[in-house]
Write a structure and sequence with these properties.
The protein is mainly alpha-helical and 80 residues long. It is built from four helices and two strands, in the order H-E-H-E-H-H.
Length: 80
């Protein structure tokens, strides 16, 4: 999980009206979430990342998709 110190480091790099986005697929510590709440930092964990990807990836231009080399993987499950 991302720590409050890591989120504070991003916050220290922001100037003026900058907005920061911190992506941690492992999530964030409670202290890290508190730091972000009191700053201009948006936290994205694994669940939110997947949700955003599902919502917006198909709407992106092919040129933009090539910058994010993400591949869809589908699993077939038998019905019980």
């Amino acid at each position: 999980k991302a720590s409050s110190q890591e989120v504070q480091q991003l916050n220290g790099a922001l100037t003026g009206n900058d907005m920061g986005v911190f992506i941690s697929l492992a999530g964030f510590s409670p202290d890290a979430r508190n730091v972000a709440r009191n700053s201009n930092i948006d936290l994205i964990d694994l669940n939110r990342f997947i949700g955003l990807w599902q919502e917006f990836y198909s709407k992106m231009a092919d040129e933009d998709k090539s910058l994010m080399q993400i591949t869809s993987v589908y699993f077939v499950a038998e019905n019980d």
